[in-house]
Design a protein that fits this description.
5 helices
Length: 92
């Protein structure tokens, strides 16, 4: 949601600036002004969505991943192979 709001904070000023004839010729200048306006708008009005987005990301990173059955099977196969190698070396 935060990303959509940030995009709107850029695209709406850009669209408004492109209505002026001078910015139709200098579209790169309109993009710079729209980026500055979008940054200002997001700093003023999007602080709460940013906090919610970063909190959600931090919570998802903090939750430890549970091992899947595939990972357990792979670990067991690696352990069995290592034991078989050790027995072969010690028995030889």
């Amino acid at each position: 949601m935060y990303t959509v709001l940030r995009l709107l904070a850029f695209l709406v000023p850009f669209a408004i600036l492109m209505l002026f004839p001078i910015f139709r010729e200098l579209y790169w200048l309109a993009a710079i002004f729209a980026a500055l306006l979008g940054l200002s708008l997001s700093l003023l009005f999007l602080r709460r969505p940013l906090t919610e987005a970063t909190t959600g990301l931090a919570q998802r990173r903090a939750v430890p991943k549970a091992a899947t059955p595939d990972e357990d099977a792979e670990d067991a196969a690696v352990d069995a192979t290592a034991r078989a190698d050790e027995e072969r070396v010690s028995g030889a």
